[in-house]
Design a protein that fits this description.
Largest sheet: none
Order of helices and strands: HH
Number of helices: 2
Number of strands: 0
Length: about 50
Amino acid sequence: MAFRRQINKQLKSSPSLKPYILEIFDECYEDARKEASARSQLPLDTFPVI
């Protein structure tokens, strides 16, 4: 949660970053799916694809 607050704070102080966040979101989400699968030892398809 602290990380989300930090991102929100940065976006408010630098709105020009918002397009960059939107640009890399899919890649970050896919990395997070893989990490969650590895840490939880659940199959990757347990975590939804967006």
